[in-house]
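Tokens for chain A. Residues wanted.
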């Protein structure tokens, strides 16, 4: 029986991002109409964390829009982490963009246990989807995360117009970093985004999950954004292909499945839900 790790995310600040990532609805370059705010109320975040725990999530991720951490953002995430940890036993992940070793060490002091920073795609293809910062800068943050003693979560997104060669190269870089968790996203098309308005093919998706699983044998493979639109009601096929974790509930700016329906489907198909994070 396969044990599945559930993770929930909270967009604690949304939109108005200075970066031009082509796949992202939060970039100010992409003019997508989304809810924008600087800081979600701490009590609202706490309520979401409690709901995540109730829905059997073993991890809860605090995500902010924007290029990276500054003093104000760092202070806010530390405050939120401290408050959640005081009340709930849940593994806390932060996802706040570019971060220095010192900033990451500070997060760790306040209860953050993992940090998510995706490479997104291959080194060669990255300049085609983002010109405001480099892939190398992303890689550097991943190295800082490892150095800080936080668990590294790093993966990316399929369906940005990248070639198979790019996918192989991206997976090689991820394997090199050996993350504890590899979040795998599938592009969610939106007519306001400067990319082809195309849903990633499910068969291709399964092929790349299998490939990733063969290469990254020690990592948890977590299926994140785009699960519902690429795989529809066949999303548990991703678990057969090698994934062992999913994001439940809503995403940053798009709606996800109902968490209870997902849990019911997992149980019906013989999966068990992990009570604690693997790390
Ligand atoms: S840096 Fe993050 S929030 Fe900003 S546009 Fe890129 S992916 Fe979106």
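Reply:
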């Amino acid at each position: 029986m396969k044990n599945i790790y559930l993770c929930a995310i909270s967009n604690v600040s949304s939109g108005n991002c200075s970066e031009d990532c082509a796949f992202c609805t939060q970039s100010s370059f992409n003019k997508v109409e989304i809810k924008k705010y600087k800081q979600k109320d701490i009590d609202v975040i706490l309520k979401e964390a409690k709901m995540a725990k109730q829905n059997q999530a073993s991890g809860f991720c605090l995500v902010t829009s924007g290029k990276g951490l500054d003093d104000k953002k760092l202070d806010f995430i530390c405050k939120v982490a401290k408050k959640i940890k005081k009340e709930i036993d849940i593994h806390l992940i932060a996802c706040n963009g570019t971060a220095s070793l010192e900033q990451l060490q500070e997060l760790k002091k306040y209860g953050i246990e993992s940090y998510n920073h995706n490479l997104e795609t291959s080194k060669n293809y990255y300049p085609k989807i983002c010109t405001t910062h480099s892939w190398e800068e992303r890689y550097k943050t991943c190295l800082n995360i490892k150095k800080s003693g936080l668990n590294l979560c790093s993966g990316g997104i399929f369906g940005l117009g990248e070639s198979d060669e790019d996918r192989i190269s991206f997976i090689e870089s991820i394997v090199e970093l050996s993350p504890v968790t590899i979040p795998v996203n599938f592009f969610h098309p939106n007519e306001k985004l400067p990319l082809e308005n195309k849903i990633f093919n499910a068969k291709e998706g399964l092929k790349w999950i299998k490939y990733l699983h063969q290469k990254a044998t020690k990592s948890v493979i977590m299926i994140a954004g785009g699960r519902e639109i690429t795989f529809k009601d066949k999303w548990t096929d991703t678990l057969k292909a090698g994934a062992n974790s999913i994001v439940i509930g809503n995403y940053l700016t798009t709606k996800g499945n109902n968490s209870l329906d997902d849990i019911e489907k997992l149980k019906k198909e013989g999966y068990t839900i992990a009570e604690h994070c693997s790390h």
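The radius of gyration is 17 Å. Residues 17, 19, 21, 24, 26-27, 65-67, 97 surround iron/sulfur cluster (CB under 6 Å).
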